[in-house]
Amino acid sequence: MQDEQLPDRGTLWTFTTQSFPVKEPYIGPTDDDFVPYTVGYVQLDDVVTVEARLTEPDPEKLRIGMDMELVVIPFATDDDGTEVRTFAFRPLADTPGEPSS
Question: Fewer CB near the terminus (10 Å): N or C of the chain?
């Protein structure tokens, strides 16, 4: 094994909406505070395709092939009150003819 520096930009390969809470041991929102969100596969150059949460919750604003950028977002708060953050991808605002968040 070796470390590999991955690109922080890629293209949206496909996506879907997560419309129900994930079961334990998931630490995110539960039935009471769950809000549907989008997840997708983002192709990072010719290196790897990763599955990740997307920052744009409206699937009508996403397009396969649109340029995406890595960001870090709040995810949950652990038992001692510490904010847990995760990576996600957001549409790049400069993608020609595509919506952005």
Answer: N
- pTM, whole model, 2 decimals? 0.79
CA-CA distance, 48 to 80, in Å (whole number)? 35
Find out whether 53 and 43 touch, Cβ atoms under 8 Å: no
The Cβ of residue 10 has, within 10 Å, a number of other Cβ atoms equal to 23
Q: How far apart are CA 64 and CA 84, in angstroms?
A: 29
Q: pLDDT per residue over 23-46, tens digit each?
A: 777 666 666 778 889 999 999 999
